[in-house]
Specification:
The complex is a heterodimer of chains A (257) and B (162). Chain A has 257 residues and is mainly α. Chain A has helices spanning 3-9, 11-16, 25-33, 36-40, 52-55, 58-77, 87-96, 103-127, 136-158, 163-175, 206-211, 218-249, and strands at residues 193-194, 197-198. Chain B has 162 residues and is α+β, with helices and mostly antiparallel strands. Classes of the chains: A mainly alpha (257), B alpha+beta (162).
Chain lengths: 257, 162
């Protein structure tokens, strides 16, 4: 018995890989079905599905960039403290004091690139008509993922806590005042009242919830940090799993028209 | 185990689901409410800024950083202007040489009266309620604002005669 045979006969190996060497259709199917990552992926990929001129590989590049952002982001979290006292200093220290001072630049450029590739992916899907049934559900999942990508950029923008960050978020969150029903200056908000008491005010509207206050201060910095590092990536990760799985369920990558 | 009638089974299912749904809604509401803090570590919205004699004619910038207001005194009145640009909410700078408020974000300009005259700002700066406290100090109330384009600057609460 060779060493390879001995390894593949051990209980450890067989508890991980629940199939024989995939050189026949049955074990090839099992190899895909018993692997959670491959399970999200279509069993078969059409020839046109791997043609760069058809897909531009934009969805794949976007996912790759999400992984880059996750890894560089986790590394940045080891140095960055989301408080008014430290945020700006920690950002500067990331460039000058931490080894490989380009980690924040990688995170930043990756974020810019991801917004671009998400748009190009959407454009490709539109131009190839891949949003049509049965893929209309996945188009909607993709639209939500686009919004989450923009929100990730928006929440990350505040974290350096410099003048650009504070005023960009001030301007950005001022737009939330005009949210229908949920913003205190938005249409319909004045209709929500108990007698003479307004329910949606500057102290209870969606902007207040976003900033944890009425101005961009320490509470807003912490809130944006948690949204940026935990809440939005979790939501995006969940939707991406659905997005990829849905591609498989809707018959793989769409073919040329 | 005692036999359960269809009716009592459906009743217990209905009660169970009602309790579960109620608890879920209550839990969700508690989570939403949690995002709205009871107290803010922000500057007070009603405060005294000293007696009118403390202010010379012109734009006073002493309360800009903490309270986000300018106190502007001219020959016959004192007004309190908001430092929030009416374009997109940045904070303009008072340029004493040019006698104007200039916003660094998109270049809106306002006269010392708060009237807009250049840049994208669509309307004048807002005034806050101003009055005299019983002890003779000026009392500012930021919960009430007065907008010129709505004709509210003639309201006696929007300025303090001197």
């Amino acid at each position: 018995m060779s060493l390879w045979n001995w390894i593949t006969e051990t209980q450890v190996w067989r508890s991980i890989f629940r199939h024989k060497y995939p050189d026949n259709p049955r074990d090839q199917s099992l190899a895909v079905l018993s692997n959670v990552f491959l399970h999200l992926h279509p069993i078969k990929v059409k020839k046109s599905g791997v043609r760069m001129s058809f897909t531009w590989c934009m969805g794949g590049i976007t996912f790759f960039l999400f992984l880059v952002e996750t890894i560089t982001g986790i590394l940045l979290m080891f140095y960055y403290r989301p408080t008014v006292e430290w945020a700006f200093n920690d950002i500067k220290a990331l460039r000058e004091l931490a080894p490989l001072g380009i980690m924040r630049e990688l995170h930043r450029w990756g974020a810019h690139l991801m917004v671009i590739t998400v748009w190009l992916h959407m454009l490709r899907v539109f131009l190839t008509g891949s949003y049509k049934p049965p893929r209309e559900f996945n188009w909607n999942v993709g639209v939500i993922l686009l919004v989450l990508t923009l929100l990730l950029s928006f929440t990350g923008y505040l974290l350096p806590w410099d003048q650009l960050a504070v005023w960009a978020i001030t301007v950005g969150t001022n737009m939330a005042r005009a949210t229908p029903f949920l913003g205190h200056e938005g249409p319909g908000a004045s209709l929500l009242a108990l007698g003479d008491v307004q329910i949606v005010t500057a102290g209870s509207d969606v902007r207040f919830a976003l900033l944890s206050g009425t101005l961009v201060g320490p509470a807003a910095l912490l809130r944006f940090y948690v949204l940026h590092c935990i809440a939005i990536p979790l939501a995006a990760g969940l939707l991406m799993a659905i997005h990829f799985w849905r591609v498989r369920k809707d018959g793989g990558i769409s073919g040329p028209l | 185990m005692a036999d359960k009638s269809r009716r009592s089974f459906l009743e217990s299912v209905a009660v169970g689901w009602t309790i579960f749904t109620g608890a879920s809604v209550a839990g969700l509401a508690a989570c939403v409410r949690f995002m709205f803090p009871n107290d803010l570590f922000e500057p007070p919205t009603q405060f005294k800024i000293g007696p009118p004699e403390d202010f010379a004619e012109g734009v006073d910038e002493r309360f800009k950083d903490l309270n986000s207001i300018w106190v502007v005194k001219d020959t016959d009145k004192i007004v309190v202007l908001s430092t929030v640009c009416t374009h997109l909410g940045c904070t303009p700078n008072w340029l004493s040489a040019d006698l104007k408020f200039k916003c660094p974000c998109h270049g809106s300009g306002f006269y010392s009266t708060g009237i807009n005259f250049e840049g994208p700002a669509p309307r004048p700066l807002e005034r806050f309620k101003v009055g005299l406290a019983p002890d003779g100090q000026i009392l500012v109330d930021k919960t009430r604002k007065f907008q010129q384009e709505l004709g509210q600057w003639s309201d006696p609460d929007s300025f303090l005669p001197v």
